[in-house]
Amino acid sequence: MAIGSKELAPSELDGMDSERLVAELKKAKQELFNLRFSSATGQLEDHGRLKTVRRDIARIYTILRERELGIRTEPTADAK
């Protein structure tokens, strides 16, 4: 099984529209900032979460870029 959040699996991300992906990206970046801050102050207990969030961010960027290049299509309104 790939490392990452279960709610941000590639199949789940593929079903989201671009606006929702950007919102998820912003949320993940905020979480990464908070995790880094906790790590720097010595309060972080789950160090594996840093890797998980970084991979989630990479997955979102990949899907957005593939849509930009036309490799992957954005879901239609019927699929929702």
Mind explaining what this structure looks like?
- This protein is an all-alpha fold and 80 residues long.
- The chain has a single domain (14-73), classed as Helix Hairpins, CATH 1.10.287.
- The chain contains three helices and no strands.
- It has helices at 10-14, 18-40, 48-69.
- It is elongated.
- The mean pLDDT is 88.
What topology does this entry show?
Blueprint: H1 10-14, H2 18-40, H3 48-69
Helix pairs in contact: 2-3
Largest sheet: none
Uncertain regions spanning at least 5 consecutive residues: none
Count up the domains. Answer: 1
Overall mean pLDDT stands at 88
CATH topology name, in short, is Helix Hairpins
What is the CATH first-level class name?
Mainly Alpha
How much of the sequence lies in strands comes to under 5%
Shape, please? elongated
Euclidean distance between termini CA atoms: 26 Å
- Bin the helical content: 55-70%
InterPro entries: Ribosomal_protein_uL29, Ribosomal_uL29, Ribosomal_uL29_sf
Family: Belongs to the universal ribosomal protein uL29 family.
Protein name: Large ribosomal subunit protein uL29
Keywords: Ribonucleoprotein, Ribosomal protein
